[in-house]
Design goal:
The protein is α/β, with parallel strands linked by helices and 350 residues long. It contains four helices and 39 strands. It is flat and about 105 Å long.
Length: 350
Amino acid sequence: MDVSVGELITLINGTLLSGSPDHRIVGFASLKEAKPGDLTFFYDSRYHKQLMETAATAALVPSETTQFPDKLTCIGVANPSQAFEIIVEKFGLQPIPFKAGIHPSATIGKDVVINPGLVCVGPGAVIDERAWIGDGVTIGANAYVGPDVRIGKDSFLHPNATVLQACLLGERVIIHSSAVIGADGFGYVLEKGRHRKIRQAGIVQIDNDVEVGAATTIDRARFGRTWIGEGTKIDNLVQIAHNVIVGKHCIIVSQTGIAGSSILEDYVVAAAQVGIAGHVTIGRQSTLAARAGVLKDLPGGHTYLGYPAVPIQEEQRLRVHIRRLPKTLERIKELENRLAALESQSSVGH
């Protein structure tokens, strides 16, 4: 990247608010980490101090900005974050282009349905027997596709991703490295003092346009299917247990765990480290704040917080009362001392 500020202004339809359009931009970074030659962006008043101190050459700022740091060229735009994204998309690290072909070290099993001229299979990848691979699919190095798996067109398995027996992936599905789709559900029954494994005979179905983050695990069903709905985005390090149903366009953030047979209806957001017990239903358009613990069904359309999860206003009131406890205890102790003193005086008087 080596472009002038003027060229960037043209690209994003911005307005020069301060500085020179002739400055050259060779990189981009955050306000705090930027150095001379970098472009940065500012959109939140909480970071005003960092804007005034940044070493960047240029910054994207809201169009209504009137205060500009010395020696910083400022470009006014309606949405600095979005404009920054446009620039990064054009000049930043580019995705590896699709290149059709099957690497000589890849292993293709018997009766696999695949068009070598319309897929990309990397070194060391394994596609097991009877798998069906749609056109435009990329299977990265050392990824594993199990027997009878179906992968829809234009899907992407990153290196070391694993999709196990008979699981179904829709179109444009992205599975990141070290994710495991279709491992056995965690099912055991205690018999005669020993844990006997219950056979997990179902599958995982992932619908179109789902993205599954690195090292996430989605377990196969005991029977039937574990089902991830269209457009859902799952972060890294998420655990989804057997027979869970996740609706359409949900967001599930890192280190969330969902126990078996629970249901997330459409547009549910589960923030980081949420825990969801088994056999519960979370209603449509619910938001589970970070570290919420869900133990029972929750109606849709609300935000929940705490353990056990309750409507956020209720939990916030509770936390205010908890913070007041030390002063309340001090007040109680003071009143107890005063009462004891009064009782002592009354005793002496008699």
